[in-house]
Specification:
Distance between the termini: 33 Å
Shape: globular
Order of helices and strands: HHH
Number of strands: 0
Helix content: 40-55%
Number of helices: 3
Strand content: under 5%
Largest sheet: none
C-alpha cells in the first residue's frame, strides 16, 4: 500500500515512527500528523524527526506533551 495514496503512506510512516524506526520521507505529503497514538516512540526518535524534518516540530511537540518529554519539548 505504500505509495498507493498519500493517506496510506502517512499511516504506514506513522506506524514506523511509533515503532522507533528511522525512515526517509521525501514528499511532505507523506509526513504523518499523529505520531504518538496508539503507541509512543523513543525520545531519540522524536528528536531525530524534529531535526531532520523541521516541518514536523508541531507533531513532535504533541508527542512530547503526551509522554512528558519535557527536555525535548
Amino acid at each position: 500500500l505504500r505509495g498507493a495514496t498519500p493517506e496510506f503512506t502517512r499511516a504506514l510512516n506513522a506506524r514506523k515512527i511509533m515503532s522507533s524506526m528511522i525512515l526517509t520521507m521525501e514528499n511532505p505529503d507523506e509526513q504523518s500528523y499523529c505520531i504518538w497514538h496508539p503507541e509512543v516512540a523513543e525520545q531519540k526518535t522524536y528528536r531525530e524527526r524534529a531535526l531532520k524534518y523541521p516541518a514536523m516540530k508541531y507533531q513532535v511537540g504533541q508527542a512530547c506533551a503526551m509522554v512528558g518529554c519535557v527536555n525535548l519539548y
